[in-house]
Amino acid sequence: MQHTTPDADTADLYGRAVATITGSLAKSMKVDPDTIREDSRLFDELGLDSTTVLELLMTIEEELEMEFDTDILEQHHFKTVGTLATFVQEQAAEQADQQAGA
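Given the sequence above, the corresponding structure tokens read:
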């Protein structure tokens, strides 16, 4: 599967990232997606573990058609659904800038 960079200027990228993260977590954790909010804490509240992190990242990459540089992922990116969605949005913008400058 070839990955492309999503349009970082798309206003709804953050919303799509939140929806993707929420849907993936609800499926993995077997919880109602309506119980997961942007400020839900991934590890403390939802019980995210290393296996779920990998599944979540793969789902985000597949559904949003982008790739992450996992070397720059840090613990604070996984604080909440919103912080991870912000990271996704920032990565998309950075990748779009790199492609524009290439």
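The CA atoms of residues 8 and 97 lie 9 Å apart. Try to locate this feature in the token string yourself.
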